[in-house]
Specification:
Blueprint (H helix, E strand, L loop, with lengths): L7 H39 L6 H18 L10 H25 L1 H42 L16
């Protein structure tokens, strides 16, 4: 029984494939290192990136809870102060207990809501800019029409309102 040796061309192709695989791994490793270095540089320059909308909501709830728990109400006076503080703490804990499960179950919902809010803001901004353009154009057109008007019977001081 003789052992069959692979042809010389197949050995060269296999060696070339191994070199290509090593080069691809080296390229992927270099890219990953460059990306990590860029992220470290950005964190150093701009600070940590903002969290998701769910994390930001959690931070907001914690901040409001801390402010409410630490605030002393001058309206209640010294007598009702400790009792009022206890009630505030209970309300804050109940609110936190109600919000936490919702955040845990649906973190993506808050990201979608934030994106929807940005879209609504962009639509509002566009509508306001369009209306401002119409107002400024209408004023200019009204001056031009007033200069050209020969007394066509329009006696009212009113302005035509466009209801589009």
């Amino acid at each position: 029984m003789s052992e069959e040796l692979p042809p010389a061309g197949a050995a060269r192709e296999q060696a070339a494939d191994e070199v290509r695989a090593a080069d691809a791994d080296a390229w992927a490793t270099a890219c990953a290192e460059d990306l990590e270095a860029e992220q470290v540089r950005r964190r150093a320059r701009y600070g940590p990136p903002p969290g998701s909308a769910a994390e930001e909501l959690r931070k907001l709830v914690d901040a409001v809870a801390d402010k409410l728990s630490g605030a002393r109400s001058p309206l209640l006076g010294a007598v009702a102060g400790p009792a009022a503080q206890q009630v505030v703490r209970q309300v804050v804990e109940q609110a936190r207990a109600a919000v936490e499960p919702v955040i845990e179950r649906n973190p993506d919902v808050f990201d979608h809501l934030a994106a929807a809010g940005n879209e609504l803001l962009a639509a509002y901004r566009s509508a306001v800019q369009a209306q401002e353009r119409r107002w400024t154009t209408r004023e200019r057109d009204a001056r031009d029409i007033g200069e050209r008007r020969d007394g066509d019977g329009d006696t009212g001081p009113g302005e035509r309102i466009d209801l589009d």
